[in-house]
Design a protein that fits this description.
There is one protein chain. The chain is an alpha/beta fold and 133 residues long. The chain has 4 helices and 5 strands; from the N terminus they run E-H-E-H-E-H-E-E-H. Strand 1, helix 1 and strand 2 form a beta-alpha-beta unit. The longest helix is centred in the first third of the chain and has 16 residues. It is globular. The N and C termini lie far apart (41 Å). The model has no long low-confidence stretch (mean pLDDT 96). This is inositol-phosphate phosphatase.
């Protein structure tokens, strides 16, 4: 049984995100710009709830429709990826390609269509990879 939502229409989607560890002016401008892009695309809502783990659990349980973040480390994302996929969701890279756990970026959603839509709308916030020294 699928636990994630089946929402593919952005106007019905509750999207979760987190700010990430970088708070310099250029990063904050990109972060806020991504929220603005999703709202202009008519997202039902975009929320920052203060915990990437909780946000990913909300997605897996069907309490939210999508999640994206830059700066999320592989140890934060590995188990959540398995749980979301087992719940019927999709987890991809923000480029729209396959998830790269070391890239510190992710889009997850109840449907592949929603994940791809978000990946196409947002701009990348660059973080160092987890496998770089």
């Amino acid at each position: 049984m699928k636990a994630t939502t089946s929402i593919a229409d952005i106007s019905k989607a509750l999207i979760l995100t987190e700010i990430g560890p970088k708070r310099d002016p250029a990063t904050l401008k990109l972060f806020l710009g991504n929220i603005e892009r999703l709202l202009k695309a008519q997202a039902h809502g975009v929320r920052v709830i203060g915990s990437s783990t909780l946000a990913l659990c909300h997605l897996a349980s069907g309490a939210a429709d999508a999640y994206y973040q830059f700066g999320l480390h592989c140890w934060d994302l590995a188990a959540a990826t398995v749980i979301i996929r087992e719940a019927g969701g999709t987890v991809i890279d923000t480029s729209g390609g396959p998830l790269d756990l070391m890239s510190c970026r992710v889009v997850a959603a109840g449907t592949r269509e929603m994940a791809m839509f978000i990946a196409q709308e947002i701009q990348t916030i660059h973080y160092r990879r987890d496998d770089e020294n």
